[in-house]
Amino acid sequence: MKTIVSVIGTRPQFIKVAPIAYSLHKRYHHILIHTGQHYDYQMSRTFFKELDIPKPEKNLGIASTLHGEQTGRMLIRLEQVLLKEKPNLVIIYGDTNSTLAGALAASKLHIPVAHIEAGMRSYNKMMPEEQNRIIADHLSDICFCSSSISANNLRKENIKRNIYIVGDVMLDTLRYAVKKTRNDAAFLKSHKLALRGYILVTVHRAGNVDHKERLASIVNALNQCNKKVVFPVHPRTRNNLKKFKLLPRLHKRNILLLEPVSYMNMLKLEKSAEMILTDSGGVQKEAYFLKTPCVTLREETEWVETVKNGWNTLVGTNTKTIVKIISGLKKPSHYLPLYGNGKASAKITNVINRFL
Ligand code: UD1
Ligand code: UDP
After folding, report:
1. If you average pLDDT over residues 252-281, what whole number do you get?
2. Residue of 105, 125, 106, 129 lying closest to 117 (CA atoms)
3. SS3 letters for 64-91?
4. Ligand 1 nearest atom to the CA of residue 39, by list position
5. What pLDDT, on the 0 to 100 scale, is given for residue 185?
6. Is 25 a catalytic residue?
7. Of the residues 34, 204, 211, 234, which is catalytic?
8. Local structure of residue 41 (DSSP, 8 states)
9. pTM here?
């Protein structure tokens, strides 16, 4: 039996690997290597439990530190694992430091690399994610794209071979989870939330939350909008809200601060929100899948199709602009399935079968 290693390490990667793990296990020895980049229960274990993802063969326990050190330590440990396991293929997901380390470790050992969610570009090289995904794409032997726009981005960079538009694996996971979840109403009720009676907020991009002025500007917008706000707070954001002494400004009656919520609960919150305010890539997409209008706290996005189709509005972080856009946001009347049909993992497995 051939061996495939998936390198994962962060919250969105656990969600992306789930349907791939279901699909590969019948035919391959599929080994999950967790770098340990995310480690809190609510940022890691919960996803394995809820989504029935097999336990990783190894957790490298790298955890949080500076980017260079974190990526370097992952590279050292991944090289050892890959030398031992000798996989026929390494799969990497998205654009985190774990993605970059996986791409480097495998390609230096001449092990073929497949990149899921390839070709995404913000054209903002200040973002660590943009740096990671450019290198990951250029080192990959197979690029799996969520849409034709990302495939074209690769071609513009002269990556021409083994590009497959397969749709988005996060839609596969969402479909699987929606079938498993019940009791949306009970969950909303437990938090005293009415259907379409709140805005769901997530924010964690370094470019937004590591800068006091930008984070304060977002906090002020949440204060000034006259809607109920539900805000599951990412650990990076919580640390910075504390550091910049902004947390007291969020202790308002209309703002519900939560620890990061489980995936199933997140879907319930996304599905029933009036709108979503976010800087997350995955949440922008899920808003689209669930037909909840999205306002993105960035100047640019990789998920440009959602903006072109009217379901996503880029607002940046200016308080006045955010408040104005939120108060006038309308739900578009048309909808196109932009990211496939929820069967991306089957298409990916077929390509891998042919490749190996
Ligand atoms: C990382 C990814 C980002 C992705 C995000 C998903 C990089 C460069 N960034 O950002 O692309 O969108 O994950 O959520 O790879 N922390 C905890 N507990 C945890 C994890 C993190 O407390 O389980 C805190 C630590 O203080 C850490 C900070 O959060 O320093 C940031 O974590 P890190 O993994 O470095 O980056 P993210 O912001 O999570
Ligand atoms: N998510 C979650 N709980 C939360 C916030 C997000 O389960 O409290 C899920 C969300 O549904 C999506 C993924 O995490 O599937 C997005 O991850 P994140 O925003 O951390 O990273 P990004 O997608 O921006 O890389």
Report:
1. 96
2. 129
3. CCCHHHHHHHHHHHHHHHHHHHCCCEEE
4. 23
5. 85
6. no
7. 204
8. G
9. 0.98
Spell out the domain ranges in the chain: 3-168+340-355, 179-328
Ligand 1 center to 235 CA (angstroms)? 7
Q: Could you tell me which CATH number the domain at 179-328 has?
A: 3.40.50.2000
C-alpha distances in Å from residue 240, one per residue of 43, 206, 258: 17, 10, 15
DSSP string, 128-161: HHHHHHHHHHHH-SEEEESSHHHHHHHHHTT--S
pLDDT, residue 181, reads 82
> Residues near 101 by Cβ (< 8 Å), separated by ≥ 6?
7, 35, 71, 74, 75, 78
Kindly report, residue by residue over 118-148, the tens digit of the pLDDT.
999 999 999 999 999 999 999 999 999 999 9
d(CA 176, CA 167): 15
Instruction: State the pLDDT at residue 71.
Output: 98
* Averaged pLDDT for residues 283-307: 98
Q: Is the pLDDT of residue 183 over 80?
A: no
Residues 349 and 344: their CA atoms lie apart, in Å, by 9
Q: What is the pLDDT of residue 161?
A: 94
Q: Which CATH class is domain 3-168+340-355?
A: alpha beta
Do 3-168+340-355 and 179-328 fold alike per CATH? yes
Q: Tell the residue nearest (CA) to atom 16 of ligand 1.
A: 235
- What is the per-residue pLDDT for 125? 96
* pLDDT tens-digit readout, 319-341: 999 999 999 999 999 999 999 99
The CA distance from 154 to 137, in Å, is 8
**Residue 87: both structure tokens together:** 């996989």
Q: Whose CA is nearest to atom 2 of ligand 1?
A: 96
- Summarised one tens digit per residue, pLDDT across range 147-167 is 999 999 999 999 999 999 999
Residues, the chain, total? 356
Q: Which atom of ligand 2 is nearest to the CA of 260?
A: 8
